[in-house]
Design goal:
The structure holds two protein chains of two kinds.
Chain A (H helix, E strand, L loop, with lengths): L6 E6 L4 E7 L2 E3 L6 E3 L6 E5 L2 E6 L5 E6 L2 E6 L2 E6 L2 E3 L5 H17 L2 H20 L6
Parallel strand pairs in A: 1-9
Antiparallel strand pairs in A: 1-2, 3-4, 3-6, 5-8, 6-7, 7-10, 8-9
Helix pairs in contact in A: 1-2
Chain B lengths: L3 H56 L16 E7 L9 H19 L4 E7 L1 H9 L3 E2 L12 H16 L5 E11 L2 E10 L18 E3 L2 H77 L1
Parallel strand pairs in B: 1-2, 1-4, 2-3
Antiparallel strand pairs in B: 4-5
Helix pairs in contact in B: 1-5, 4-5
Classes of the chains: A alpha+beta, B alpha/beta.
């Protein structure tokens, strides 16, 4: 979407500031439902789920990040996306993601009560990473 | 007195010790730099989380999340003990584990009858509690070779789950704090229930003008575990930096000691050599005198 009205976004993860730049629109995986943020969005703090962040960068190249859960804060045309992990689709290691998926499925099969939540979450993360790369998921 | 040959061998040995310790010192220095960078790059995230958390807490004073609630009776305590994976870093691990043992004794006194459960992080802590007669809930050896936020999430989740299910009434972290390059202190931090550090004076700078989605209590209850993940992560990064600093320092000391030893040995070697030469000359002179008679 091109509106001609850019604003600043930053994607922050515990390991670093993953991205900072001007965009005209950004889609985030809200906990209610995924939504898009445009110029002059009302101030909001929204919970984010595991999903994808999409925007066109200053060269108008579509950029996709796979993100872990977190939140987004919008204030005065400054968007902070604060997530526990963020990986650009091009930098995702597919082999590692497939491996993580298999490991999580293995653990789920064992049905150990205490590990269950942990396995479910890592499965969700792995599937999300794979989906972001546009890979078929079996 | 040792023979020349023995001294020469020892000199060779000490020289290779110097090579090893000074190399380890350089490696530790490089790793410490990286560990400190990791701490710095975690700061923006930490700042954002605590910023939004204090905003939410400031506006949701009537909402009390279970993770914030103190329990009246403490019948079970979880202890997350973060050590290093490797040794050769001076008193780093020993001091920490000693502190952990002491703290456990204190807890037993303070809460008689309460059961203690340990979650050791790092090889050294895992080994230590393996030998003791304590309940180890889960152990995380070898996590510092490749520091990963996922590990911090896993550790925190155990604490949160056990606290939520009332298996734990109190969770604490024992970790080496990175005070400065020359100072590491083993400290005990409260993990759960969360101690709110919201300054009453410093109300959120932007008032209640945010849309909060899905709802204030929901966001708060999803943000608190993230805050806890971050707490563990920060403790791990701190411990890692402190470990490298401790190793750098102890290897520096080891190198210096070895150099002193080398000086002594070389002095002894020269003395022994001198003595050998003198005896040889005496023998030659003695022999010549005997001949001229």
């Amino acid at each position: 979407m091109v509106t001609g009205k850019p604003f600043t976004i930053e994607i922050v993860s515990p390991s670093k500031v993953e991205y900072e730049g001007e965009v005209e629109a950004v889609s985030v995986p809200g906990a209610y439902a995924p939504f898009q943020i445009l110029h002059n969005h009302a101030p909001i703090i929204a919970e984010l789920e595991i999903g994808t962040i999409r925007f066109n960068d200053s060269q108008d190249k579509e950029t996709v990040y796979a993100c872990g859960g977190g939140f987004v804060q919008v204030k005065d045309n400054f968007v902070s996306i604060v997530v526990e992990s963020a990986e650009e689709s091009g930098s995702i290691d597919i082999d590692r993601a497939v491996e993580a998926k298999q490991r999580a499925e293995e653990r789920l099969r064992k049905r150990e009560e205490y590990d269950r939540k942990r396995a479910e979450l890592s499965l969700a993360r792995a599937v999300n990473r794979l989906r972001t790369t546009g890979r078929q998921i079996d | 007195m040792a023979t020349l040959r023995e001294i020469r061998e020892r000199i060779g040995g000490v020289k290779s010790i110097i090579k090893i310790t000074s190399a380890m010192k350089l490696v530790a220095a490089a790793k410490m730099k990286r560990a400190q960078d990791a701490i710095t790059s975690a700061k923006p995230y930490a700042a954002k989380v605590s910023d939004v958390l204090s905003f939410l807490a400031g506006n949701a004073s009537d909402v009390v999340d279970p993770l914030l609630q103190e329990r009246e009776t403490i019948s079970s305590i979880g202890l997350i003990v973060i050590s290093a994976d490797r040794g050769l870093c001076g008193g780093f691990n020993t001091n920490l584990l000693k502190k952990a043992d002491k703290h456990m004794a204190q807890l037993r006194e303070q809460y008689p009858g309460a059961s203690l459960h340990v979650i050791p992080v790092g090889q050294k802590a895992c080994d230590h509690f393996d030998k003791l007669d304590v309940d180890v809930v889960d152990s995380f050896p070898g996590v510092f070779t490749k520091l990963d936020f996922g590990t911090a999430q896993d550790i925190a989740r155990i604490g949160v789950d056990k606290f939520a299910s009332e298996d734990f009434d109190l969770v604490q972290i024992v970790v080496n704090e990175f005070v400065s390059v020359v100072k590491q202190d083993p400290i005990v931090e409260q993990f759960l229930p969360i101690v709110p550090n919201v300054d009453e004076e410093e109300q959120s700078p932007y008032g209640m003008d945010f849309i909060v989605e899905p709802s204030l209590p929901d966001v708060l209850s999803s943000l608190l575990p993230k805050h806890l993940n971050l707490h563990v992560w920060r403790a791990m990064l701190d411990s890692n930096a402190a470990e490298q600093a401790a190793r750098m320092l102890s290897m520096d000391n080891a190198t210096r000691n070895a150099e002193d030893l080398l000086d002594d040995l070389e002095l002894n070697y020269n003395k022994a050599r001198q003595a050998a030469i003198t005896t040889e000359i005496l023998e030659v002179v003695g022999g010549a005198e005997a001949l001229s008679k």
